[in-house]
Amino acid sequence: MTATPARPRGSGPGPTANARRGGAQAAGRIALALRRRLPDLSVDESRDVVVLDSIATGLRLELAPGRVGLRLPAWTDGPDAGAAVARLADVVTVVERETGLVGWDPQVEAPFLRSFGEGHPERLPLAAAAPGAAEDDAVFLRRFLSGELGREDFTHESHLRVAHELLRRHAPEEALRRMREGLLAFIAHHGIDPAKYCEVTTRRWIDRLAATRAADGRSTDFRAFLAAHPELLERTPRPDPGRGC
């Protein structure tokens, strides 16, 4: 894969001690956000450029004032290439959120997340819905994963919508993993008590939605799916404490 640098929205001052300190702080936040996705991620702050490396995946981030470089190994091909690019998209989303930069793809001269894999099952479009129009489910998922949704915006119906979109893209176990990571990141981002997360409840809803989707047999957007299954809006009590929550 080619290097995918992040392009700033505007020009800024040259490197300073404060800028380097800010880069190190951003690197720390990025590393924290990516640790579940890249458990072997290391951080090297010994130079002006802060380097984050994942030996297992070959992914490398170089953070300098006003610029971030993202690289993947060029030898990745076949089925692994799709997973590698999807991983890169996850990283770009986190870097954009934590630095205010825009990931730029030099091959197509366009923002990386906008150009990312037309038709690719992992693609998360950047375009916002038109005024008055229903927001696209993929856009809603991107907003959840990138931390753009406010705490008050994430209702029970929002939980269902994210889970539905994840199940449209992934098998139940993978959807559960991504839902778990997304919820834990959301909780941390908004300063919510981590005890609010319940693995048993999350798994139960993923299983219920997966079974309902399988029985329904249609590939529809969330609004149509919910209209056909309004019973999903009825929240059930949390499981007994003895079951793990």
Brief summary:
The chain has 245 residues and is of the alpha+beta class. The chain has helices spanning 17-34, 79-99, 112-115, 137-145, 156-169, 172-189, 199-216, 222-228; strands spanning 6-7, 42-44, 50-54, 59-64, 67-71, 102-105, 110-111.
List the uncertain runs.
1-19, 117-134
Number of DSSP-assigned strands: 7
Distance between the termini: 42 Å
The computed structural class is alpha+beta
**Rg over C-alpha atoms, rounded to the nearest angstrom:** 19 Å
What's the tally of helices?
A: 8
| Main beta-sheet annotation | 4 strands, antiparallel
Q: Percent of residues in beta strands?
A: 5-15%
The portion of residues assigned to helices is 40-55%
Strands ordered across the widest β-sheet: 2-3-4-5
Oligomer: single chain
If you average the pLDDT, what whole number results? 75
* SSE order: EHEEEEHEEHHHHHH
Inertia-based shape: globular
Write out key terms for the chains shown.
single chain; disordered N terminus; alpha+beta; 245 residues
What does this structure look like?
With 245 residues, the chain is α+β, with helices and mostly antiparallel strands. The chain has eight helices and seven strands; from the N terminus they run βαββββαββαααααα. Helix 1 crosses helix 2 and helix 6 packs across helix 7.
